[in-house]
Amino acid sequence: MSRKGLGAASLATPTLTHLPFWRLKAVSYRWFFGSRAMGRPDPADLLPPPSEKARELVVRPLDHTIAASRQEGIGMKTLGTRAQVLPLSPLGPGELGGPLMPVEVSRQEAMEALLRLAQSSLQPQGLAPEMVLESLVGVRLSLIFSPLWHGTARVGETEHHIFLDAVDGQEAGEAEAAGAPGRSPAAKAAQEPLLGRLEFLPFRCPNCGWDLPFRPQSILHLCPTCLRLWDGQEGRWREIPYQVAAPPQGQAWEELLWVPFWCIQCRFSDGKTTLDTASGLRRLAPQSNPIPPKTVKEEGPCLLYVPATRLPDPKVTLAMAVRVTGAQPWLQLTGFPHGARVSSAGASLPQSDAGHMAPTVLAGLVPFRNRRLLEWLAGAKAQLGEAKVVFLPFCRKDIFWKELHTQATFPHSPKCPDLALETP
User: Fold this and answer.
1) Is the pLDDT of residue 291 over 50?
2) What is the reported pLDDT for 185?
3) Which of helix, strand or coil describes residue 72?
4) Is a pLDDT exceeding 70 seen at residue 241?
5) Contact predicate 163/170, CB 8 Å
């Protein structure tokens, strides 16, 4: 207080309080459609260089932190980094050493802030955009309570509230309040419970009792012993039916990597024109590198294929989804042979996130020089139907994994949690 020229003050014993922040996480996909100059402009030339139609994808992982309290003048400069590098513990009554400051910024306001952050990404260099198609995938909003030391000092009739960061000891802010201490900005406000009950499950197969492959980020777990697939997100183990695309003749099941895909029936419509069949998608978006005709599905609904395995590069995940969805392959769906010792990848991408990628996948398929198609794409809405898990076979080719039916590839990454292979 003396450093700020306020003179002598009486300082009460500081107390511990917790300031709320919203942590905003998502992956922003933005397709830019427009024109790009063919070559560099010549200052001596009166006419601009000719241009060509172009399409470019900008992918931006978002991980930001915003204040969930409207108290002005209080904050921590390193909180955004801190949430990414320091361990975060679940909030529980036994973990608190003081009151919680009220959450005054609603979830809807936090979501609007995330949308603004997604739209603030840079545009592709040299591309004059005529249309932008954007989507957010993997939206996760969570509350973080950061500890602060709160002390009060009275100077005359004014009460100063001083906050120190309890992690690094730096000053976090100051607020003024006139009157009784009960009006302190750190006073605990009555609010609804923030979290539900935290449940723990034994990490073993409910059917055979053997351990499941340990992949902390995976939401689906294939038992290597009885080959049943389990989901434990709802506080209990629930068996998930799945199918397997049989490998080409001559390929041994045990020599392949089986990658789970979300296979979702989808329908795109702008109210006038509807796309809902596999043949319609192939006519709309013919592949530049088509797969052999005998492996193409002739009829049936339009199917969206998105890897349930979360790869390190979101662009690679989208490229695989575009390739397999565009192929609309005919697959001989079956199950794993009884007693097979297969190697499978993990599945940490939820079904809801896969569904949110539908417009982005379609944007990567349509011919970007067709203006009429782009106008339809801008107004088309995706309607999702039945979803299932399908395991597709991949074989190792140098540093890549290659899918045997559609030739989709992705680079091997030993640091990817979903690719931590465990062969029984």
Assistant:
1) yes
2) 46
3) coil
4) yes
5) no
Same domain, 163 and 236: no
| Per-residue pLDDT tens digits for 18-72 | 888 899 999 999 999 988 887 776 677 767 677 888 999 999 999 998 888 887 7
The runs of H, that is alpha helices, within 300-369 are 314-327, 351-356, 358-363
The two three-digit tokens of residue 222, written as one number: 């294939």
Q: Do 346 and 286 fall within a single domain?
A: yes
Inter-residue long-range contacts of 250-254, CB under 8 Å, 24+ positions, other chains counted: 251/393, 251/395, 251/404, 253/336, 253/337, 253/340, 253/342, 254/340, 254/341, 254/342, 254/343
Which domain-ending residue is among 183, 212, 234?
183
Same domain, 140 and 16: yes
Place of tokens 């940490």: 348
Report the C-alpha gap between 15 and 151 in whole angstroms: 6
Same domain, 173 and 226: no
In a domain, 198, yes or no: no
CB 265 within 8 A of CB 386: yes
Are 170 and 258 in the same domain? no
Identity of residue 308: A
Structure tokens at 373: 């198609």
Going along 249-360, which residue ranges are E strands? 257-269, 274-275, 303-307, 333-334, 343-344
Distance CA 25, CA 114 (A): 8
- Same domain membership, residue 147 and residue 263: no
Residue 398 tokens, joined: 């140098």
> Residue 69 in contact with residue 160, Cβ under 8 Å?
no
Phi-psi region of 303 (alpha: psi -120 to 50; beta: other; left: phi over 0): beta
Kindly indicate the confidence band of residue 336, based on its pLDDT and cuts at 50, 70 and 90.
very high
The whole-model pTM stands at 0.83
Residues 6+ apart with CB under 8 A from 196: none
With respect to residue 189, please indicate whether it lies within any of the assigned structural domains.
no
Q: How far apart are CA 142 and CA 317, in angstroms?
A: 25
Q: Is 313 inside any structural domain?
A: yes
Q: Please state, in angstroms and as integers, the Cα–Cα distance from residue 4 to each residue in 11, 149, 155, 163, 312, following that order.
A: 15, 19, 12, 15, 49
Whole domain around residue 361: which residue ranges? 220-419
pLDDT of 73 reads: 67
Residue at which a domain ends, from 183, 208, 239: 183
Provide the 10 A C-beta neighbour count for residue 240.
18
